[in-house]
Amino acid sequence: SIVIHWQPPSSATQNGQITGYKIRYRKASRKSDVTETLVTGTQLSQLIEGLDRGTEYNFRVAALTVNGTGPATDWLSAETFESDLDETRVPEVPSSLHVRPLVTSIVVSWTPPENQNIVVRGYAIGYGIGSPHAQTIKVDYKQRYYTIENLGMFDK
């Protein structure tokens, strides 16, 4: 299964009161048949169940009014997990961390936690002068490196 979340169109572009949303999805590997799901009311998320394991899907959402269906979002992709993973615990620490300083940037790279049975939805990279939490960047669970850019040169 995959949970999708969305925001309503801006009030200036709604063209009437929104009565629900139309979700369209399909397997990404080939141009497969599109499945539609209707969500009524003001709900802004939907659990899509019955999907194949370890499979990438494309999703798009359009708002509905009494006059019909509005324009849809761009297609976005998400992938189901290959096996059932534990979501009752937080992930462990990444199994390695490497930091390579350059003149005005730092390249951070890591490997996932050793325990692969706990869901990892993403990574948070904290950095800052005197505090590792001054700024935080969040990246996708598939990402294994990040370049922190535009770090000024500082006199010692």
3D architecture notes:
It is a single chain. The protein is an all-beta fold. Helix content is 0%, strand content 44%. The radius of gyration is 21 Å and the shape is globular. Strand 2 (20-27) and strand 3 form a beta hairpin. The protein folds into 2 domains: 2-80, Immunoglobulins (Immunoglobulin-like, Sandwich); 98-148, Sandwich (Immunoglobulin-like). Strands 2, 3, 5, 6 and 7 form a 5-stranded antiparallel beta sheet that branches. The chain contains no helices and 12 strands.
Q: Topology, pairings included?
A:
Elements: E1 2-5, E2 20-27, E3 35-40, E4 45-48, E5 56-65, E6 68-72, E7 76-79, E8 96-101, E9 106-111, E10 122-127, E11 135-140, E12 145-148
Antiparallel strand pairs: 1-4, 2-3, 2-5, 5-6, 5-7, 8-9, 9-12, 10-11
Domain Fibronectin type-III: 1-83, 93-156
Pfam family, one: fn3
Protein name: Fibronectin type-III domain-containing protein
- The gyration radius over C-alpha positions equals 21 Å
Our count of domains comes out at 2
DSSP strand content: 35-45%
How does CATH name the architecture of the largest domain?
Sandwich
Overall outline:
globular
Quickly name the level 1 CATH class of the largest domain: Mainly Beta
- The number of helical segments is 0
Order of helices and strands, N to C? Answer: EEEEEEEEEEEE
Properties at a glance:
single chain, 156 residues, mainly beta, Immunoglobulin-like, 2 domains, three-stranded antiparallel sheet, 0% helix, FN3_sf
At a glance:
The chain is an all-beta fold and 156 residues long. The chain is built from no helices and twelve strands. It has two domains: 2-80, Sandwich (Immunoglobulin-like), CATH 2.60.40; 98-148, Sandwich (Immunoglobulin-like).
